[in-house]
Design brief:
The protein is mainly α and 307 residues long. It has helices spanning 18-36, 38-55, 57-60, 92-128, 130-144, 148-159, 163-174, 176-190, 193-200, 205-213, 218-241, 253-260, 269-306. It is built from 13 helices and no strands. Helix 4 runs antiparallel to helix 5 (130-144), helix 4 (92-128) runs parallel beside helix 8 and helix 11 packs antiparallel against helix 13. The longest helix has 38 residues, at 269-306. The chain is globular, with a radius of gyration of 25 Å.
Amino acid sequence: MLQLDTPMALGKEPRMNSTAARVQKAGAFVVRLAKYNRTLLLSSCVFGTVFMLLLLTSWIAPHDPSAMTLSDRFSGPSAEHWLGLDHLGRDILSRLLYGGQFSVSIAAITLALSALIGTVLGAISARVGGALDEFIMRIVDLMISFPDVLVALFLVAILGPGYGTMILALVITGWTPFARMTRGLALEINAKDYIRAAEILGCSRTYIILHHVIPNILRPLATIAFLRFGHKLITVGSLSFLGLGVQPPDTDWGAMLAEALPYLDRAPSLVLIPGLAIFVTALSITLIGQGLEAHMDDKMKWRHDGK
């Protein structure tokens, strides 16, 4: 009788479909996450929901955020306008979604640029040492003493308000925490045996920084990035509230707060809704960072106890 050389016949287990395997791994990760830290799981779900809504804004926003219906201004929630209309008869839900795109994207861009600049400078400072290390660290100390809003005011006086000015101000003051943390971690890594082995083999400083130092500090940097994201989002809202960021007809959550403030007594929801959006988004991403930080601390403790 002819016997087919199937995986089962050869004594091998059939390979699971790659997509199904990924789904299974993702499910197992979620289960472990839920057992470990339910707050981390809940905050991840909240931020994930906000992120998906903002990502799909162009398809799910019910109205043009700039379209005005003055005769229906201050109208309450209805089947057509779920969150009602503002003082100019514009759909609040649509403006909330489009405004969130601006707020979150600006916070993400400034955070990415700050992390990139700070990581590179911190790694170089730790690796080179000497006068360059002292110079970079003194710049860090100097920049930390200047608040984001003060730097933004100075740049607005020179360049004028707008997104570019806001991003530049936040990057100038935002790279310093990453540089300081990277330097501390890099100094610890530079004392490892594999770094000394790379030096003996003749590897250049650039090679060691890119292939040994930075890859080993990405996890701690990711944690601080989550913690800093909430701060960036609140700062973006504050600058827009002061009129230093987004300019009409565009909007973001901070600008929505500024526009609605004169109508607080008549329509408090105009202030409450964007303020709540900033609070929930910043809180969820900060809790994610704190959960990851606690998870890393526990892993370090387990490794130490295991030794």
